[in-house]
Design goal:
The chain is of the alpha/beta class. The protein folds into 2 domains: 1-29; 31-257, TIM Barrel (Alpha-Beta Barrel). It contains 8 helices and 12 strands. A hairpin with an 8-residue loop joins strand 11 (243-247) and strand 12. Helix 3 (118-134) packs parallel to helix 4 (157-173). The longest helix is centred in the N-terminal third of the chain and has 25 residues, at 2-26. It is globular and about 50 Å long. It starts with a helix and ends with a strand.
């Protein structure tokens, strides 16, 4: 009888732990819909900002910083530009010249990448491993909207979808959900593999509604609008299940939240 009870307790514990794991997976990376968030990619940083989710550049913080945030219950998103080559990154020399395309206008030191090349997935997976080793909870894949940019390559929307799916699979093996960053026209294809969405100026540019499948699936939508906070925009964001913050384009610690 005692053996039976012990076995029952072990089974109950296993079910409980599985339930906790699934609950966290349901809110990808601990990024819950409606959570207060911030996005800081360059100094000055304020890692004490009172939010539940914080997007950061791994080159601007340390593993100790991420551990301290996790101890406070803050979920962290690791910034990775998966669509551009950046000449200041430590791994810049690892990219074959043939994969590096036209300059990204307005962003000195950045050039578009040919995401159709399988080698690029391996290079980005190495960055994802670093994010995981530092303790981040999720991946922000920036500059995926190459199909609407003059990259120097004949990249289509289908190419972008295939690339993001491959990246999501590699990130998933590391326990890191990946987000959809902008590219609203690809939402139907990307939402099934993305754990959350991130949007820049979707209210100003009129495409926030295209991310509605994320809200319908119980996934977070993290939006940043550039400029002053606007009470009317805040009200619309709440109605749409969008976590909204107002930022300046330099993405430092400056932040204005909805009331």
């Amino acid at each position: 009888m005692i053996a039976v009870i012990r076995q029952w307790h072990r089974g109950l514990l296993a079910v409980t732990l599985a339930g906790l794991f699934l609950a966290r997976a349901a809110v990808a990376g601990g990024i819950a819909p409606g959570a207060a968030w911030d996005w800081q990619l360059q100094p000055p940083l304020d890692l004490d900002v009172p939010v539940a989710v914080l997007g950061l550049d791994p080159d601007a913080v340390s593993a100790a910083d991420i551990a301290a945030l996790r101890a406070r219950g803050v979920a962290t998103i690791c910034y990775v530009s998966v669509g551009t080559w950046e000449d200041w990154r430590a791994d810049a020399g690892a990219f074959p010249p043939g994969l590096i395309g036209k300059p990204y206008a307005g962003w000195p030191g950045e050039r578009f990448l040919d995401i159709r090349a399988p080698a690029l997935v391996d290079l980005m997976a190495a960055r994802f491993r670093r994010c995981a080793e530092m303790g981040f909870d999720a991946i922000e894949p920036d500059n995926i909207d190459l199909h609407i940019n003059d990259t120097g390559f004949a990249i289509t929307g289908a190419d972008v979808v295939a690339y993001v799916r491959a990246l999501a699979a590699r990130a998933g093996k590391l326990g890191l959900p990946i987000g959809q960053k902008n590219a609203p026209d690809l939402t139907a294809a990307l939402e099934p593999v993305a754990g959350f969405a991130m949007a820049e100026n979707c209210f100003a540019d009129g495409w926030c509604a295209e991310l509605a499948p994320y809200a319908a699936a119980g996934k977070a939508i993290l939006a940043a609008e550039y400029g002053r906070n606007d009470a009317a925009v805040c009200q619309r964001a709440r109605a749409m299940g969008i976590s909204l913050v107002f930022k300046r384009r330099d993405l430092t610690s400056w932040r204005r939240a909805c009331p």
